[in-house]
TrEMBL record:
It comes from the Bacteria. Residues 70-210 form the N-acetylmuramoyl-L-alanine amidase domain. It comes from Paraconexibacter algicola. Pfam families: Amidase_2. CDD domains: PGRP. Gene3D superfamilies: Peptidoglycan recognition protein-like. Residues 65-196 form the Peptidoglycan recognition protein family domain. The lineage of its organism: Bacteria, Bacillati, Actinomycetota, Thermoleophilia, Solirubrobacterales. This is N-acetylmuramoyl-L-alanine amidase. GO terms for biological process: peptidoglycan catabolic process. Belongs to the N-acetylmuramoyl-L-alanine amidase 2 family. InterPro entries: Amidase/PGRP_sf, Amidase_domain, PGRP, PGRP_domain_met/bac.
């Protein structure tokens, strides 16, 4: 258990104790029951500060590519979420975050040149673990033939034979657990907790996402 999850558990316990103290005070208010509430409040506030600090330390770098739909095209709302699907780009891996960003912008341009709306994936993760925001996750993506609605696309640079890094797996794990929080801008805030995470080749015959699949389907706990 990580320090963060221990403190999250502690925070839940302390909130319950505070609620119980308030109930006792309402039933039978005394100076002592008032004092217990104040103590409990302080303990909750302390745990909240610890959790908040660890949450921040734990958070990967997040870069909004700030891509826009092609002139004259429009995005549609995502609808009920049903799955997350992992991909590779079938191109080179990124050696630096600068290269990762350049590759992603290149794919966005190439997709628009084909008449598509914009980069089809909501999220990309660099080998250094940086999370890139592509197409808004609250809009329908374009990454699996005929299976895009309610399906959030994540991509890593690389192709068959390439393997994910530990940083990539860590950031995927973080993203799946925290995409609903205000760590992300509103257009990418989606609750991915509890959704099945599939590889592209679970939907159709394709080599994608190659050796990245284990990382995706294990939700970043293996690679
Ligand atoms: Zn794919």
């Amino acid at each position: 258990m990580s320090v963060l999850s221990r403190w999250k558990a502690r925070l839940r316990v302390r909130r319950n104790l505070l609620r119980a103290a308030r109930r006792r005070h309402e039933a039978n208010p005394t100076p002592e029951s008032r004092r217990v509430i104040d103590d409990r409040k302080e303990q909750v506030a302390y745990a909240e500060r610890v959790v908040e600090r660890h949450d921040r330390d734990d958070r990967p770098r997040i870069v909004n590519l700030d891509l826009k739909p092609r002139e004259g095209s429009q995005l549609s709302p995502q609808g009920t979420l049903r799955a997350v699907t992992g991909h590779y780009t079938a191109g080179p891996v990124d050696q630096t975050d600068e290269q990762c960003e350049a590759l992603l912008r290149g794919y966005d341009r190439a997709h628009k040149a084909k008449g598509w709306t914009m980069l089809g994936y909501a999220f990309a993760i660099s080998r250094a673990g940086t999370i890139y925001l592509g197409r808004p996750a609250t809009a329908i993506g374009a990454h699996v033939l005929n299976q895009n609605s309610g399906n959030v696309g994540i991509v890593c640079n690389g192709t068959t034979g390439d393997r994910p890094t530990a940083a990539q797996a860590r950031s995927l794990r973080w993203l799946l657990a925290n995409a609903h929080t205000d760590a992300l801008p509103k257009a990418w805030r989606v609750d991915l907790r509890g959704l099945p995470v599939k590889g592209h080749n679970d939907w159709m015959a394709t080599a994608c996402p190659g050796s990245f699949k284990r990382m995706y389907t294990s939700k970043g706990t293996k690679r």
